[in-house]
Amino acid sequence: MASQGPPPTQGDPAGVRFEAYPLAPVGTFLGIACITTGLRIYWRIRPTWRIGADDYTLVFALVLTIVWYGIDVAMYHYGRGIEGFMPDPWTMGPLIVADGVLWVWGLNVIRISAALLLLRLKDSLPWKLALWTVITVQACMLVVGTTMHLVMCQPISARWAPTPTAKCIPVPNFMIYGYVYSGLTIASDFTISILPITFIRTLRRPFYEKFLIGCLMTAGMGATGIAIARLLLIMGYLGKGGARINALQDFLWGMELTIGVLATSLPTLKAPVHGLLQSWGVLRSTSSSSDMSPDSFLDDLTNGPHVENQMRQWDSLSGIRLEYAPNHNLRLRLGENAVSFEQRLRWAIQVAETIKFIHDAGVIHGDLTCANIFLDANLNARVADFAGSSIDGSPLLIVVTESHEFPGPLLSTRADLFALGSVLYEITTGQPPYQGLKDTEIRARYLEHDFPDTTSLRAIGSVIEKCWHGKYPEARAVIEALKGTPPNSIQS
């Protein structure tokens, strides 16, 4: 929506240059945005490919922002930032139109990406309705904004060259459009920024961790502030006309784009940022625990003392203590050693009982695989890697392994039970489901409910199938089914 503006009525001497004011800070933030987006994509493809619609739209928005910045550089090259200089209208005019269209596309695609990211976090109907409303509004704003830039004057060349037969939207009407568009922009930015606070405040996490998550997920408030400043500029409160105002306008436009990309990238970097700050000593590690035992219902579990040994209390916060496991993870053990069927069944029951315990405590693991199950000195299975798990409905901050990913809402007990089925399959066969297939192929098969054949696995194959097809309402039913499984149903 950049424009040259009316001739200056007062201000700077002719020849003063202002190109450094918008180009330097916007270019710096754009460089940072490229880095954070690259890191986000890196974390989404490792250890497995987990790219979604929010990632594709963010990369598209970043490309639009880079192209927008390139056009801005070209405009300043042709004299936009020189006070009193009149650039060639046939050179500058098309650049201004392209600059405005790209800005509209970039800004709205960024918000669509942010809303798609937030859709991953919760599965409640009000949450989804709010975010799909935001996405719909952004799509409409994209269409309307693009149309207004292209039909403001007919023919379009009348925007930069005198055309007696031109038909243009009256300036007062276009200003009203600008006010309404800016108001919707501010409301959208604020909504996307404020929504995460509704669940961050309920997290049962240390204050410093909630503060970190809050900072990462509400960084879009910066874009809201920029949008307010841009509205004040449109209304004339920050000055009118001249190269200085053009530079201020381009600075605000560019910062809104780059901060939007940054704000959309940062939430996915919570885990690495948290680890980095802990390594620097900025955040403390909550590794201490007391010896307070969990509720007595653990006595009903076959391996209750084993599960109880992992559960401790940190102050008033429930937590999980992960002790030293010298026998590596279950995946390595299955691949390197001959394991008896009795031992495999014991591991299966231990894992299922642990999943029941954490579900009863309001925890969704989110990334249950044999690589995240470790063996202690007595070869007990210990479920680990709760760094990105959900507590009391908080968002999952994990990258799900494709062969264990439920083809539905990830923030659910059913998703954990689906992953449990894949874990049982690996415990039984020694390899994860569809080993050797690409992640995209596995995802496509799961979406069609096409799972590996388990008929040769006898009784435990039925348990696995029911986990995959959502036949078990809770982990307790899986435990009962496993306890009723003949030992010879586990291959050795």
UniProtKB/TrEMBL annotation:
One of its GO terms (cellular component) is membrane. InterPro entries: Kinase-like_dom_sf, Prot_kinase_dom, Rhodopsin_dom_fungi, SAT4-like, Ser-Thr/Tyr_kinase_cat_dom, Tyr_kinase_AS. Residues 213-492 form the Protein kinase domain. It is a multi-pass membrane protein. It is found in: Membrane. The chain crosses the membrane at residues 20-43, 55-76, 96-119, 131-152, 179-199, 211-239. Belongs to the SAT4 family. This is EKC/KEOPS complex subunit BUD32. It comes from Chaetomium fimeti. The lineage of its organism: Eukaryota, Fungi, Dikarya, Ascomycota, Pezizomycotina.
